[in-house]
Write a structure and sequence with these properties.
- By secondary structure, this protein is α+β, with helices and mostly antiparallel strands.
- The chain is 63% helix and 12% strand.
- The chain has four domains: 228 residues, Rhopdopsin 7-helix transmembrane proteins, CATH 1.20.1070; 67 residues, no CATH class; 159 residues, GAF domain (Beta-Lactamase), CATH 3.30.450.40; 157 residues, Histidine kinase-like ATPase, C-terminal domain (Heat Shock Protein 90).
- The strands form four sheets. The chain has a six-stranded antiparallel sheet, with helices on both faces.
- The longest helix is centred in the last third of the chain and has 81 residues.
């Protein structure tokens, strides 16, 4: 048998076999393409089996047409073509069962149908009661069915009715719109495919009805493929439209040329010159059509896509001139809004600080709407659906979540996300597998579905936007780092200037204090001696001596403060451990009565714990006392009563003391000078201007820092940070 099949003398050229075999190749390619989209999908596997059966039938029927004698034609049909024929309906039945989600219910029926079909195939091989010698028609040899084959035809038509019933019931009970559309497309495709049954006419009654079944079968295959991969790639929709358009428009030039050739053939065949001239003219007409007319027709029917491509080009050009993430987001929003007209556009951008996604296009005029509708303004960065988006980088369409197997791992999470954000389309902005942001689109204002052209546009826009957003974020991060470092340098410079001033004033203060202290002591001692023997003095003399004594004591106090200010830093090896909470409690207890008399209340918000530092107990008391008394004075400047808040907290490295008041505050123009020696805002005679300077000196001796935050008429907060004792931390 093989020798006969491979003997080229048993074949002859037959043009009717060419289109059948071309369609066979196309059908097999479509089936393989669908299978490769999702190899684990049962529906895709069933479709591939169906395409393989159809392809085997059509490919081998081509060799039947090529056969030069009925014996070779019969061999091809019985052993190969009929195997494809008997496999078609069981594969189609399997596909319908999977599409209607009834595989578990009808699994045994599917197996039984396959077994019964292949029994018919075996009977056809072992007996001549099924298929007889082929008849010669104008298209080539074609088989003739015997009466026993009518049982197979009965199975064929019965399965078709069962398939339609399965699909119809599935369509009626389906609630998801996109699935109903998919099933409806499958029902229509099976009806179209059933037209191929016309091929049985010549097999049963030996009537010269041309077997054009390969044409509806090709349409049937394309429709089934479209119903499956419509969720996978919208480009197939564009391909189908363009192919149909090309065939339709090309027929207007090719068919007339063919008819002219048939009509004028008796005249032009007489001379070679006429034939050459005829074909030359037609060639020029064809070239003119393909170069001039066809592009214009294509542009007319595809003008929507060309318009979006033009918008995409202008958008890319604009990105070059945009600076700043906000302008980029606004341009992206305007482009989408003016092109696709969605009812809502939400653009989320990743925040490195909080590790989440924030709504970036939230303008002031939308804030009230967002508050009323409780719209989502932040998305968790660890959301599994967002992580899936970063890995897969694909535009997500809400209608395809339930039918696309690629969403299986995150289907429920995807539904939750879409429900939460009320999005119809999700456009991820991904660069190097990092999700920089998300664009959520709502329904179109026209209520029309998003098309293939829309998704092609969104894909182009998301790719360009991702690069632009990445560059903008990088640029802003660099600018922020520069600003932070500049601010740090300014702060360090201020600290250096302050340290230099303090060092100079400290040296001066120490010398002045020693020079003044001796004569001042003599003045105070002699004054007190005179007062002790002042009984013989008149009243004016006594009053003068008291004034001298008070002035001397005031000068002594200032000298003592100067001595404290000029004192050298502490040596850490000689400094004891001190519980700052005990120091604070002692100061509050000491000042409490005085403050109550002046209608100022202290509220201490301190958690009972140990706050161990190394330092001088008296000096730290002096710091706390100065800060509390300054707070009291600030309150009394603007009102009769008030509250001073004291906070004490600790971290791994620091203990922080905060003293907050409700007083007059400090103007911005002098806030940088408050720690300068002898600078004061108090009235003459009420302050020497050394309190805060001494506090700063003491804190810095303890390797700490002191800072202030203040706003006029709203109060001030002084913050002291001291290093926690290492032994206490351990």
């Amino acid at each position: 048998m093989l020798e006969q099949l491979f003997n080229l003398s048993n074949y002859r050229y037959n043009p009717h076999a060419i289109p059948v075999m071309v369609v066979s190749i196309l059908i097999f390619s479509i089936g393989l393409f669908i299978l490769l989209q999702a190899k684990k999908s049962i529906k895709n596997v069933a479709f591939f089996f169906l395409c393989a059966s159809l392809s085997l039938w059509l490919w081998t029927i081509g060799f039947v047409y090529f056969s030069a004698n009925p014996q070779i034609a019969l061999l091809w049909y019985k052993y190969f073509t009929f195997f494809g024929v008997v496999s078609i309906m069981p594969s189609a039945y399997l596909f319908s069962v999977v599409s209607s989600d009834r595989l578990k219910e009808q699994r045994n029926f599917v197996i039984g149908v396959f077994v019964l079909s292949y029994i018919f195939y075996l009977l056809a091989l072992t007996t001549d009661k099924f298929i007889t010698s082929p008849k010669l028609y104008f298209w080539g040899y074609y088989p003739h069915y015997k009466p026993l084959n009518f049982f197979f035809l009965f199975l064929y038509f019965t399965l078709f009715l069962v398939i339609q019933a399965n699909l119809w019931f599935a369509y009626k009970r389906e609630e998801i719109a996109i699935k109903k559309t998919q099933i409806r497309t499958i029902i229509i495709s099976f009806i179209i495919g059933f037209i191929a049954s016309v091929d049985y006419i010549a097999k049963i009654w030996t009537v010269s009805v041309y077997p054009f079944g390969f044409i509806p079968i090709f349409i049937f295959t394309c429709l089934l493929a479209y119903s499956i991969i419509r969720y996978k790639t919208f480009d197939i929709e564009t391909v189908i439209h363009k192919t149909a358009l090309w065939i339709l428009s090309s027929s207007f030039i090719i068919i007339p040329i063919f008819l002219l050739y048939r009509w004028f053939f008796p005249y032009i065949r007489k001379t070679t010159t006429l034939q050459f001239g005829f074909w030359a003219v037609n060639f020029l007409i064809l070239v003119f059509y393909l170069r001039i007319i066809q592009p214009k027709i294509d542009h007319f029917f595809q003008r929507g896509r060309y318009k979006l491509e033009d918008i995409s080009s202008r958008f890319v050009e604009d990105l070059i001139h945009l600076k700043g993430i906000n302008k980029l987001i606004q341009r992206t929003e305007d482009t989408i809004a003016g092109t696709l007209y969605p009812r809502r556009i939400d653009i989320f951008i990743y925040s490195e600080d909080k590790r989440n996604y924030k709504l970036a296009n939230l303008s002031a005029d939308r804030q009230d709407i967002v508050n009323k509708s409780k719209k989502v303004v932040e998305l968790e960065g660890e959301d599994s659906f967002l992580q899936w988006l970063a890995k897969n980088d694909k535009v997500v369409y809400r209608e395809f979540i339930d039918i696309d197997p690629v969403y299986a791992p995150v289907r429920e999470k995807a539904k939750d996300y879409l429900e939460l954000t009320q999005a119809i389309v999700v456009v991820p902005l991904v660069l190097n597998e990092k999700l920089l942001g998300i664009i959520n689109l709502g329904k179109k204002a026209s209520l029309r579905r998003y098309s293939a052209v829309d998704f092609h546009f969104l894909t182009t826009l998301k790719n360009e936007s991702s690069i632009a957003i990445s560059n903008s974020l990088l640029y802003e991060n660099i600018e922020q780092q520069v600003r932070q470092r500049t601010q740090k340098l300014v702060e360090v410079q201020k600290q250096l200037i302050q340290a230099e001033k303090l060092a100079t004033v400290g040296t001066l203060a120490g010398g002045v204090a020693h020079e003044i202290n001796n004569p001042l002591t003599a003045i105070l001692a002699n004054t007190q001696m005179l007062l002790a023997t002042a009984d013989s003095f008149d009243a004016d003399a006594k009053e003068s001596l008291k004034l001298i004594e008070e002035a001397s004591k005031r000068c002594r106090t200032i000298v003592q403060k100067l001595m404290t200010y000029a004192r050298k830093p502490l040596e850490s090896s000689e400094v004891p451990e001190i519980d700052l909470l005990k120091v604070l409690k002692k100061v509050i207890s000491f000042l409490g009565y005085q403050l109550e008399q002046e209608n100022v209340k202290i509220i201490s918000e301190v958690k009972e714990d140990t706050y161990i530092v190394r330092g001088n107990h008296n000096e730290l008391e002096q710091v706390a006392t100065n800060l509390i008394l300054n707070a009291k004075d600030a309150i009394k400047q603007i009102k009769e009563s008030g509250v001073i808040y004291i906070f004490l907290s600790k971290s791994d490295d620091w203990i922080k003391l905060e003293v907050k008041d409700e007083g007059a505050g400090i103007p911005k123009k002098i806030i940088s000078r408050i720690f300068d020696p002898f600078f004061t805002t108090k009235d003459v005679g009420k302050g020497a201007g050394l309190g805060l300077s001494i506090c700063q000196t003491i804190v810095e001796k303890h390797n700490g820092s002191i800072a202030v935050q203040s706003e006029p008429d709203k109060g001030s907060t002084f913050t002291v940070q001291l290093p926690i004792c290492i032994e206490a931390r351990e």
